[in-house]
Amino acid sequence: MTTNPLTLRIARQHVERFQDEAETRPEPFQVRDHDEAMDCFDCEAFLQLGIDAFAWIVRADETIRHAVFSGAFEDHSHLVSLCFQAWLTPVPYANSWIAACLDRGFDVDNLDEFRECERQVRAIVASLDSSDFPESLRDCRQRAVTEHENGETAEFV
Asked: How far apart are CA 43 and CA 29, in angstroms?
């Protein structure tokens, strides 16, 4: 199969919306009074874009891995990796917007969930560079890959 699975296409669309919104919005701390409250509601909606994009990337990753292990699909994990890396692009903007809302005394309802997504994405992106792994972990990873390639591992269910 040469086309990307639907879950990956949806994940990429969510990431693109998350990135586009960060690029097209004005600076988040240039509003007053009632507009400040509305701006913080918009911040929550923006964070939800990121949360949803993260969920779709994870779903795409699971779908692709399952299809690869079942032999029905070629490995597109590098495209999932690119989605995770792209997800981080609007994070500095999100963080400045969050800070502006918090400085105004507003609560950001989905802040903890967004922070958890950010933590996970940063860990995933960091893990993509296996040169950061300790040598013992690289050796263990290589043995696991070799065992899988030789059919010495349990079948993925």
From this structure: 11
pLDDT, one tens digit per residue, over 48-97 is 999 999 999 999 999 888 888 888 777 777 888 999 999 999 999 999 99
Burial 10-24 (b: 16+ CB within 10 A, else e): bbbebbebbbebbee
List all residues 6 or more positions away from 141 whose beta carbon is below 8 Å from its beta carbon.
130, 133
Instruction: Give, in order, the Cα–Cα distances in Å from 59 to each of 52, 98, 106, 112, 149.
Output: 10, 26, 32, 21, 24
Q: Which amino acid is at 114?
A: F
Residue 35: CB partners within 8 Å, gap ≥ 6?
A: none
* Other beta carbons less than 10 A from residue 68's beta carbon: 15
Contact 24, 79 (CB under 8 A): no
pTM: 0.68
Q: Please calculate the CA angle 43-86-131 and round it to the nearest 5 degrees.
A: 130
